[in-house]
Amino acid sequence: MRMHNPAHPGEVLKEYIEGFSITEVAQKLNVTRVALSRIINGKAAVSPEMALKLGKLLKTTPEFWLTMQANYDLWQAEQRTEFNIEPLFN
């Protein structure tokens, strides 16, 4: 089990766009203000399409955003799921 709670990509995105309005950034990304706000507030995930857009806008890579989302999702799943599965191989 992972030892820390990874940040939702929205938290990191919030830092990247500091000084710009959500409306302004949403327009540049060609998404609604609501869609961007949901990501920033951790209520929605970064999709592959959004990762491509963020990469282009912020001069990062799509992998940066998708890896962060995957790490967040995996940690969240580990916190709420208890598997009672024995390994296939000993």
From TrEMBL:
This chain belongs to which protein, by name? HigA family addiction module antidote protein
Q: Which GO terms describe its molecular function?
A: DNA binding
- Any keyword DNA-binding? yes
Highest taxon of the lineage:
Bacteria
All copies of the HTH cro/C1-type domain together span 19-65
PANTHER family per record: ANTITOXIN HIGA-1 (PTHR36924:SF1)
Keywords (alphabetical) are:
DNA-binding
- Fetch the SUPFAM superfamilies from UniProt: lambda repressor-like DNA-binding domains
What residue intervals traverse the membrane? none
Species name:
Avibacterium avium
